[in-house]
Design a protein that fits this description.
This protein is 69% helix and 0% strand. The longest helix has 17 residues.
């Protein structure tokens, strides 16, 4: 074990064994690999062979399910330390990222979260790593940014992730290349700006809107790119202190045009409508562009009424608070977008969203709209009824909300 040359040969043999077939003594192999990697942290070839073997052991068969909490943390901790030491080696970065992706992200790596994010951002610095490593790294970063609490999102922003994503986008714009890295860079920013005004500000301060316009003009037919960009701008529009920076003629013109989009089902049009609804919610006195506010309101209403309320969605809400705020704004088209969104989501995904709407006091905010008229009443009633039908066992709630 103390002789690195011999250990490297053993690890190579284990690598070939586990790559070809599922081994029968995986527990022994894991302990041997981990002990060797820890003893010879500075030996690059030991770390490369060891991490490659770990990948195949964990990937093959049901091995991952058999790994307990302590062993899992030992594997992940050992990998992250090896990646720190050999940050410039593309093979080590590839092995490490691919192996980590086999675990539950972000749950399993929260104990090394900051260190892992730091490593990934270094990989994405554009110095010395090939395209495949970049793709794996940004995929992992996006997974780390998804489904985490606000403090982790703020941390990612403080570590420079927004600026790094914008740089990756700039480099690809210069090459006129829209690849996986560009699309996932926008997706990552969409995730880390969710209910995180600090990161929304970083995006705006880094000329994010200029890059948005450039991407839109250069790659107008890239549906996934457009959906990710508009999802991000929806997060920016939800921030009251930042919305005024979207009150720009070029931006409003683009949002208004995107209402007509049929790319990615209704997602692009829906997100454009959400952005405009939040901007319009600030009132007529905040409208500072040449395009008549009334024309935008009229087109926004027509677009919403064109959507099928039973549309399947490619979106995930952790909270309805930004939508619920619009229900309280005395502007009909804002209430229309919000009530349509709630009607759609509680119709198509009742198991997930009916309870969320109830838990966030959405019924109290919907109830006044049940006495309104027109389409706002139609969609508010639909959302309300969906919750009542889905949660009929909760008699206490619905005794207080009788139609």
């Amino acid at each position: 074990m103390d002789r690195s040359e011999l250990l490297e040969k053993i690890l190579n043999d284990l690598f070939h064994l586990h790559r070809a077939e599922e081994g029968s003594k995986n527990d022994y192999s894991l302990q041997l690999i981990l002990e060797g990697m820890k003893r010879h942290l500075g030996e690059k070839h030991v770390q490369i062979s060891g991490s490659a073997s770990l990948f195949y052991i964990i990937r093959n068969g049901n091995n991952k399910e058999k790994i307990n909490y302590v062993l899992r943390n030992e594997i992940l901790g050992t990998l992250v330390k090896a990646m720190q030491v050999h940050i410039q080696d593309s093979t080590m970065m590839r092995n490490g990222c691919l192996t980590i992706c086999l675990f539950r992200i972000p749950q399993d790596v929260l104990f090394v979260y900051e260190t892992l994010v730091s490593i990934i951002l270094q990989i994405l610095s554009g110095e010395g790593h090939d395209d495949f490593v970049e793709r794996v790294a940004i995929y992992l970063l996006n997974s780390l940014a998804c489904q985490v609490e606000g403090k982790q999102k703020i941390l990612i922003g403080e570590m420079g992730a927004i600026e790094r994503m914008l740089l990756l986008i700039m480099l690809r714009l210069a090459r006129r290349e829209c690849d996986d890295v560009m699309e996932i860079a926008w997706s990552t920013m969409w995730n880390v700006t969710d209910e995180t005004p600090e990161n929304c500000k970083r995006f705006l301060d880094g000329n994010g809107m200029g890059l948005f316009l450039s991407c839109l003009r250069t790659f107008p037919e890239k549906a996934e790119l457009l959906r990710n960009m508009m999802g991000l701008l929806g997060n920016v529009a939800e921030c009251e202190v930042l919305r005024s920076q979207l009150m720009n003629q070029d931006f409003i013109t683009v949002f208004n045009e995107l209402l007509d989009s049929t790319q990615d089902n209704i997602e692009v049009s829906y997100n454009a409508a959400g952005v405009l609804s939040h901007i319009l919610s600030d009132g007529a006195n905040s409208w500072k562009v040449e395009t008549p506010r009334s024309a935008v309101v009229s087109k926004l209403e027509s677009s919403i009424l064109r959507w099928d309320v039973n549309s399947q969605r490619n979106i995930n809400y952790r909270s309805f608070q930004p939508i619920l705020r619009l229900l309280t704004v005395d502007i009909e088209v804002c209430q229309l977008w919000a009530s349509w969104a709630l009607a759609n989501l509680t119709t198509v995904y009742p198991d997930k969203y009916c309870e969320l709407l109830k838990n966030e006091m959405g019924l109290e905010l919907l109830k006044p709209l049940l006495d309104s008229t027109g389409h706002v009443k139609q969609y508010a009633t639909m959302a309300f009824e969906n919750v009542r039908n889905e949660l009929t066992s909760d008699f206490d709630t619905f005794n207080n909300f009788v139609l």
